[in-house]
Hints:
Blueprint lengths: L1 H7 L9 H34 L11 H29 L2 H4 L4 H17 L7 H21 L8 H11 L13 H5 L2 H5 L1 H33 L4 E6 L2 E6 L2 H19 L8 H36 L7 H20 L15 H29 L8 H9 L4 H11 L5 E5 L3 E6 L5 E9 L5 H23 L10 H22 L2 H18 L6 H26 L8 H4 L3 E6 L7 E7 L2 E4 L15 H15 L12
Antiparallel strand pairs: 1-2, 3-4, 4-5, 6-7, 7-8
Helix pairs in contact: 5-6, 10-11, 11-12, 12-13, 12-14, 12-15, 13-14, 17-18, 18-19, 18-20, 19-20
Amino acid sequence: xxxxxxxxxxxxxxxxxxxxxxxxxxxxxxxxxxxxxxxxxxxxxxxxxxxxxxxxxxxxxxxxxxxxxxxxxxxxxxxxxxxxxxxxxxxxxxxxxxxxxxxxxxxxxxxxxxxxxxxxxxxxxxxxxxxxxxxxxxxxxxxxxxxxxxxxxxxxxxxxxxxxxxxxxxxxxxxxxxxxxxxxxxxxxxxxxxxxxxxxxxxxxxxxxxxxxxxxxxxxxxxxxxxxxxxxxxxxxxxxxxxxxxxxxxxxxxxxxxxxxxxxxxxxxxxxxxxxxxxxxxxxxxxxxxxxxxxxxxxxxxxxxxxxxxxxxxxxxxxxxxxxxxxxxxxxxxxxxxxxxxxxxxxxxxxxxxxxxxxxxxxxxxxxxxxxxxxxxxxxxxxxxxxxxxxxxxxxxxxxxxxxxxxxxxxxxxxxxxxxxxxxxxxxxxxxxxxxxxxxxxxxxxxxxxxxxxxxxxxxxxxxxxxxxxxxxxxxxxxxxxxxxxxxxxxxxxxxxxxxxxxxxxxxxxxxxxxxxxxxxxxxxxxxxxxxxxxxxxxxxxxxxxxxxxxxxxxxxxxxxxxxxxxxxxxxxxxxxxxxxxxxxxxxxxxxxxxxxxxxxxxxxxxxxxxxxxxxxxxxxxxxxxxxxxxxxxxxxx
Length: 638
């Protein structure tokens, strides 16, 4: 039996093969059973010798054989228990185990202690070596397994890991993945490169989460974003218009910027197709929206003009364009989602249609530009407003409420007009609220010609008021506007200065009179009337300037009217013709320049503080105008 045992006992067994282990365990069981039978037979033989009072034979089982059999039985029992617990560990679902990887490490440490306690004398046995080796590999694989938790993994990441790296069958997915699928590749998990690979995969999965979330946000936005619409009536018809264009372009620009930032991400590779689809859609959408914005803006301004038949030669073209525009806007009203615009089924060949529509509108607009140029040539003040504002003025010329916002662009000081029975303009108002009653009411007409008549009437009214003011001997804040009061006082001042120069000694007396006048103006309490207070303030600043001029003349001993110190001053003169009782001709003289006063209403604008630089600017500008040139002051004041 000992020879059979040494020959047949388990050694050099493929312990990874469960079938081989099973065969060896069966063979071991037979040998142990045979050994037990021998022990029984030996015991019976001893009993028989005793029964017959015979001397017992010297039949002793060798201790080495007995010890070897017990050792192998112990080792294989422990190996069987190890395999049983190992199988239980392998059967655990990875979903539940991946958050408790430490249990795998505890399993290895626990068995290492068991081996040290139970098989300390058999450390060189091949089964012990096998168990220790596997436990060592399990512990070495734990760091890699920690990176296999896959909380950020998606299906493609699991496929790359399981089928690509571990060569598992395609049916193995996260839902049926077990710990055993990993433990069957312990050598691979123990490699140093595996941790680097898993960290890279995990980092990529984490990075792709942000990319995926951004794309999902973009997709959700494209499916839900709706344009805000408003109803627009024209004539007896109506259509919808798109509102809040700035918000649309801002939001679209943000999403395009988001895609650009995603293109720079190293994790975009898995989403290239989706990214390219939405990049193309948003590029086309941006182009179509800009076309549509231009069409809508131009159509809104052109429609009131064209509907009145202002351009009969383009009426047919504009009518067809309007029909196409309204048809398209009706489709948008039915489905106001933004991305529906680039839906080929809803709007086939859209960009070409929009380009054609815009081209037709631009043809109409060019015709309108020629029309507006004719209007500007008739009323040059229209050059001070843009085409859009001019369209509003022409389109609502008979409605003073609609025209009033543009008056400040057409006139220097007219901020509003006062009408009587909505049929005639009777007064003009400054921004400060100063009211100037016109000498003759300006009748409102269906077109814009009344604006030119208003310009003429303001000149005639101010001229007549200047004449009355010059003929009056006292200041009347109620009757005369600030501009006329200051102008009349300057005309009187120039006359008094020239008389004083001729009198040689009169400048000192004139300076005293100006001081008394300044005191009278400054001591007046006008706080209860803001308009009158503005008029008095303007007169005070003029008197201060006049005293400076007189002081300069006295200092330079001006004794002749053609003295340079007097010639270089800006002087105002009036000429009254009895044949024209309501007209006062006023001129401005400075050095050799003489310019007619235009009587353009100035309102109550703040007076410019005079400095030496101010005088130089006025002198240069008036001389330039005298020689047929112009001038433009540029740069910081002072």
